[in-house]
Amino acid sequence: MTDLGDFSDFSADDPDADHADEAAADGAAERPSADRGEQSSDGETGRTNGATGDTTTDRSVEPDDFQRVDRPNIGQDRGIGTLSASAGLVISEDERDTCLRAYVTVSNRSDVRIGTYLLAQYPDGERLFCRITALEYVQEFRSDDANEIHARRAMRTSGIDEQDYKFMATLEPVAVLYDDSAGSEPSRATGEAGDGGDLKRRMADRVPKPETVVRPATDPEEIKTGLKMPEDGVFLGHLAVGGEKVRAATEPPTVDYRLKDDYDSGDPLVFRHTLVAGGTGSGKTHGAKNVLRQYLGRTYEMGDGRSPETAVVQFDPQDEYAQMHDDNPDITDEVARAYDAEGIRHGGYDDTVAFVPRVGDATYAASHHRAEQVEFTIPFSMVRDSPWLVAGASLNDNQYGALIELLNRFFRQYGDSGTYREFCSFMDDPGLREELNESGRVHEATYDAVRRRVLGFGSVFDQDAPPITEQIHQFVRPGGLTVVPTYHLNDSRAKETVVLALSSLLIDEKLSNDPRYDRIKDTPLVVGMDEAHNFLTDAESVQARKVIQKFTEAAKQGRKERLGLFLITQDPQDVADPVFKQVNTSIVLNLGDEDAIKSVNLPSSLEGKVPYFEKGQMAVYSPDNSEPVEIIGLSHCLTRHGRD
User: Which of 17, 79, 428, 437 could form a disulfide with 215 if both were Cys (CB 3.0 to 4.6 A apart)?
Assistant: First the structure.
């Protein structure tokens, strides 16, 4: 007996066998579905008589009455995916050996971006804080989709089946977060983490388990701890990724970025100097005003135990910063309340004074702000301590030595009351020229070269205005903002002389052990300089070297003397390297020049984004404050900005 059933009657010699089989198949196709043993309404299939091969069906229930059982969803998806060990799961001291990848589920793929911050939980409660550095589609099934059939099918359909592909995120481990309730790390022996303690970070020193759920970091405390960001300080902006603010599970749903401004973990970063770099139209001045507004009214402890408010002196070549005296009319009451809730200082600053240099016949018009205006002039006596102010840009070392000799003789004869006009008459004395030449002190050719180069400062020194040295008490005011506009000066040499004379006065008094003006020495001071590349450029001239030397020394001693430099430039590559190296905080907006971008020394992960920054987007590189991050500044200027 055969097991082939009906096929046992098949005969290869029967010519009608094939036709009979086709007819039987056609008949079966025409019979109702219930006759083919399909599932009935009670979930049972048609029964087959094993002996006869006949099929019986319960026809009492109609097929349309099929009863479906409601199956409730069990659990709920958490996070965006899970860690995968398919290509290895490695955390290594050498970042090149680290392999940390996560599978992202279909529903989360459109929301994931490079730079997104994620968390992966360890079994004992610690968390791995990481960021996405790469996103990749990988084929789920072995197939070649680079062919005509696949391409034309895709061109004729409205979408793709995401389930045909794996979506993998490559992660960079940043830190391990742990709760420290007793001031120490959690016990590795018990595997228990501190309950309710302070959240702390350490280097990524352990690998998470495979299939660990990864979720977006939305808790501001976790994000700030993971990125080593301070909780309090000077507000700069809100943390962002790819031009979008990081969404937090708080109200407001943002993460504020601040600079350390206390003495708990070192000196306030304002005294370790700040650079704001950005091209035209990037929001550089807008952002600088907002940062300076936060410093106004802050107090800092001095060496004698006092805590006076900081004074800000801002050199302003475009005449924009005196507007900080006035309110911004675009800030509504609702916006103001939001800023108050975040502890952001806003509104015009009443104690703002524009110190206007009197140079030649230049006049200053100020219809765009309501700040008080005070005129001043540079007295020639300041050249006694800073001879390079009249050195010009082309004096060599030999000629500079001759200038020192001549100035010393002049001030010994005339005293501090000597004027620039008197010095020019002094230089015109042929007897002096002959005496110095015969004595071998100054060669006659050198004398003539110096005389030619010190001419041309007649419009700068000793003008018809009170000398700045007689107005120091008002020029440097605890809690005050002093703006020195130079936009109205057409002579670039005059502009440079004014800015360098005043900044040198401030620096010299700050660094001096025997200061002439205690007001400067005893007041915490921020010196802001817009278009800093015009004054702090590296060059071979004597004047340039003296300026760089002075500012470098000021930068080195700033922490001790409570002196902070706030440099603003669109050409950071032109700022002298000795000064640049002392800057701790770099705030970089949009820059299009490749040399400028490379000069600010951003990590490669941020450097490539800089040319694509929109107005207000910034990269902040401050090693003593946080990991390098991207932030977005406020859409409003906190004071008045722009001219009608």
Answer: 79
